[in-house]
Design brief:
Elements: E1 11-16, H1 19-30, E2 33-38, E3 41-45, E4 52-57, E5 79-82, H2 86-96, E6 99-100, E7 109-113, E8 119-123
Parallel strand pairs: 1-4, 5-8
Antiparallel strand pairs: 2-3, 3-4, 6-7, 7-8
């Protein structure tokens, strides 16, 4: 067996019908900087470094349903965002444009949907 090559996760990419609009939402939510902005592609970088968060325009994008039922488009990824004050973070997320999901599976976690329908969790 050969030695494993060096590999580093550089970021997460979310599809959207409008990469620029979804990136603007996450910029408001997280306060991250735009480090790359091209037609159909935007990358945000965390001020402290680490993996980035990118968005690509996908014309065939289908909004996921959460929680998905039989035959529903399922989410393929969600973001977990640690917060120090859940109530304040929820208010901020809603002001940024997030929608509180109807189904909330845990008392100390809040599931929100971004403008393209991707679920993300705020947790203590």
């Amino acid at each position: 067996m050969s030695e494993r090559p060096q590999m580093t996760v550089a970021g997460v990419v979310l599809d959207s019908p409008d990469a620029q609009a979804l990136a603007a939402f996450y910029q408001r939510l997280l306060g991250w900087n735009v480090v790359q902005d091209e037609p159909g592609w935007v990358k945000l970088g965390a001020p402290g470094g680490g993996p980035g968060l990118s968005f690509q325009t996908e014309s065939a994008y289908v909004r996921p349903v959460w929680p998905a039922g039989p035959g529903d488009p399922q989410m393929s990824v969600h973001l977990d965002i640690h917060v120090d004050d859940l109530d304040a973070a929820c208010l901020h997320a809603e002001k940024a444009g997030a929608t509180l999901a109807d189904f909330q599976p845990q008392e100390d976690v809040r599931v929100y949907l971004d403008p393209a329908g991707h679920p993300f969790c705020l947790f203590l």
